[in-house]
Amino acid sequence: MKKTFEVSDRLFELYHRVHRLVNESMTEEGVSLARSKFLFFLSKLGPCRSTDIACALNFAPRTVTEAIDGLERDRLVMRKPDPEDRRAKIVSITETGRVVLEAAEHPRKQLIEEIFSALDDEQLDQLYDIVSKLVEKTDEIRRRKEEAEGAEVAVAR
């Protein structure tokens, strides 16, 4: 059991170190990793409501609104009235946002390549398989938990 926790701790340590390095390199290019998630989402899926962004990225609506406020202030996104709901706004990435996102993606990719160059192709394949198994297991646990919560709600009614 001790080995399991040691490996888990090392994975979390790796994640945080990579996250910090990637965030620093992207920020130097004008957009943090967190802000780039919003821009990337908008660049791939196109204009949408902030509630759609919150749901897709699993963020609180207020967090999304605050992030969009900042991105709009920096002219990386823009809001327009939703033609179907006068209370809502449609958010879209601007050309400036696309340029900044593209500029920040280069150092991110370069850094990831450099980090993973520590592994040969066989090790990279093995790591991919191992991480995939762990992702599948977490998805299985999440599904079981959601099913159990759904059953509890049904019983409570």
Automatic annotation (TrEMBL):
GO biological process: response to stress
SMART domains, per the entry: HTH_MARR (SM00347)
Transmembrane segments: none
GO molecular function, one term: DNA-binding transcription factor activity
InterPro entries hit by this protein: HTH_MarR-typ, MarR/SlyA-like, WH-like_DNA-bd_sf, WH_DNA-bd_sf
Domain HTH marR-type: 8-136
A Pfam short name: MarR
Protein name in UniProt: MarR family transcriptional regulator
Organism: Sinorhizobium terangae
